[in-house]
Automatic annotation (TrEMBL):
Group of enzyme by EC: hydrolase
Pfam families: PNP_UDP_1
InterPro entries: MTA_SAH_Nsdase (IPR010049), Nucleoside_phosphorylase_d (IPR000845), Nucleoside_phosphorylase_sf (IPR035994)
Record bears the keyword Amino-acid biosynthesis: yes
Gene Ontology MF annotations: adenosylhomocysteine nucleosidase activity
Key words, A-Z: Amino-acid biosynthesis, Glycosidase, Hydrolase, Methionine biosynthesis
Protein name, entry field: adenosylhomocysteine nucleosidase
Domain Nucleoside phosphorylase: start-end pairs: 2-228
Domain of life from the UniProt record: Bacteria
Amino acid sequence: MIGIIGAMAEEVQGLIQVMENVSVMEKASMTFHKGQLYKQEVVVVRSGIGKVNAAVCAQILIDEFAVETIINTGIAGSLDERIDIGDMVISTDAVHHDMDATIFGDPLGQVPRMDTLYFPADQGLAAKAKGVNEAVNPQIKTFLGRVASGDQFVSSKEKKAVIKESFGPLCVEMEGAAIAHVAYLNHCPYLIVRSISDKADDSATEDYEVFEKKAVANSTTFMRSLIERW
């Protein structure tokens, strides 16, 4: 069973529309769609925005549906000059950029008393996903790298620079590290997939409004193809 999480309805509706034999369960104000997607058993759900919503959603997928893999699909802001709007980032690992317990001697981003700063993604799945996106979205570039998450929409050059310098991620968003964190605690393989909607700088608000649909379309095409080739 594969669990697929998107923060917003736009990020998952293109998958739900082509599912078969769907049953629906409501829990924690979330709607879980269980069924077949290209003959694969999946559960597709909109978590809502932010790390708490994403974490709650991931734990429900593990507890209620016994998913064997979690994929988090959505959009993000680019933190790398090579990565343009519409391009795809596939996670190698994830980090909480807004976790700060440095006063206790922990590095920035470290959850105190945990044994890792970065939550590793499933590397085999990441490599497979990169190949799939290159095949089905040849008009865009595909990158493997770190994803940074925090409960804030990054839209300033100053904040962007701090996150880049501190963690070296390729993109920034608001859910992935929470899902990665839950997956790590439960020994569940996971992957974050992010289509770039903006540059996470002073133009981010304007870019997001213009390019969100393009980014979501690329992401939906990719996700359908990844499951079809699973």
